[in-house]
Each structure stands twice: as structure tokens, then as C-alpha cells.
Amino acid sequence: MMSQINNKPLLMTSDKYVMLRQKYDYNSPDCKLEIVKTGNIYNVGKFIGIFAREVPNGNPNGINIRRFESIVQEVFQDCYAAFISNNLTDNHIINLKQISSAIVYWKMTSQGGRAKLKMDNVLAKWNADTVNQLMNAYEKKDMSLFRIGGVRIPTATTFMRFLFPNDFGVMDSRVVGNHTQPNGITALSLRKDGYINDTKQNVIKYETEYTIFLRSQAAYLNELGIKFKDVDDRGKIFLSKFRASDIEMSLF
């Protein structure tokens, strides 16, 4: 795959990857979620605003992306443990609804009012089968099963990105249109406006083309010992290795 990118192992220089990742600033200041206490949940409470790195002053309930990752993973792990032991309670389902709608809202933030519409659509279509589908999606790491309540490929890949950030990233039309399609990395079916069509073939190519590219870029940067400055889930600056999700964030 890498040989197709101008015969170079990296799409762009390691310095540029670092610079772009550190500049990443996609925020969702109005995104809200409330997590209630169940068996092993640590991050309990009401959270308002998801920010790329530092949480701005004046946002006492805001969280950064690394903490949101932790909350997403914690909720799904907790729900899955209850699900397979047949101990799923109403509180588990409340948390699963909250985290799923927050993922959808975060992804759609840049599209203004569509964020709330898409989130409300997921909640309106929620039923017992939705829980089963999400738990199966989580167990199998199957992006296509995250297409709940009108969710399509780009948002379904956002579930993958937050649950498994080492191995997956969002398949966003900007990254595809500006980078992976022009460089022959992906051969996706796109609408004229660049939107990623919700087709079976594109689902397959997320795994066989797009994800392979993200992982290989991250692996190569890590082999070179390249790190970037980020903010962890406690708000502390640290040097991070690249993950598949970080490659996508650099290219976004």
C-alpha cells in the first residue's frame, strides 16, 4: 500500500504530522452527556463540552478528547460485562444512550443544527435491538453494526475511533477528499459533493484500505521514535506516540 504513495513510506514528513496533530482543534462545546453510577464506572457526572486538548476556563464541566475516549471505553466495557452476564440494568442502558448520542453529536458538531437532529434521531429510533446491536458491534469490532438510528459510515467509524483509538480513525470526507483518494490510498464510492456513500463496498474498504493506511503511518512514525505533545485525560501535557486515530486527526 505504501509504495503507491510516491514510493515513500509516509504521506508527509514526520515534522508535518507532528505539527498538524498538535494544531488539531476540533471542539464540540455544546455536547452534553451525563453518566450515572453502575458497577465499575469511575467517570460519573454531567459533562458539557468536549475539547481537543485543554478545557477552556469557564467550562467547569468540560472534558478533553482523551477523557472522552476514557469515558466511551469505560461505558462500553461496563455495559458489555453486564450484557454477557445477563445483568444489564436501566442505568447501563441510560449510559449507553448518553455515550452513543454524544459520539453522534460530536461528529456532527461542524454541521451546525444537524448535530442535534442526528442525535435526536438515534434516540427516537432506540429500542432493545439497538442495545444488542451495539454490544455485538463492540464485541466484533464491526463498524457496520454501529450504524444505528440513521447513523451512516462516517459516524459509525467515529464509534470505532473512540472505542479503539490505537487501531481506528474517523473516515471523514475531508481526509478522504484531500488525502486518501487523490493519493490512491482509497478508492471509495463518493457523491459529487464528496460525501462517502453508505455502501457495503465502502464498509469493506474502511478496513482494507483506510484503516490499513492509518495504522501503517502510525507504525512508521513510532518506529522512527516520533512523538507529539498532547493533553491526557487528567489535563496534563505529555509526549504521545502516534495511534491510527492521531494520523486521521493530523490529516483532518
Q: Can you walk me through this structure?
A:
- The chain is mainly α and 252 residues long.
- The chain has one domain.
- The protein contains nine helices and five strands; from the N terminus they run αβββαααααααββα.
- The radius of gyration is 18 Å and the shape is globular.
- The two termini are 21 Å apart.
SSE inventory with pairings:
Layout: H1 14-23, E1 28-35, E2 45-51, E3 63-64, H2 65-84, H3 90-108, H4 114-124, H5 128-140, H6 153-163, H7 173-180, H8 200-223, E4 228-231, E5 237-240, H9 244-251
Parallel strand pairs: 2-3
Antiparallel strand pairs: 1-2, 4-5
Helix pairs in contact: 1-9, 2-3, 3-4, 3-6, 8-9
Question: Can you give keywords for this protein?
Answer:
single chain; 252 residues; 3-stranded mixed β-sheet; two-stranded antiparallel sheet; 9 helices; 5 strands; 10% strand; disordered N terminus
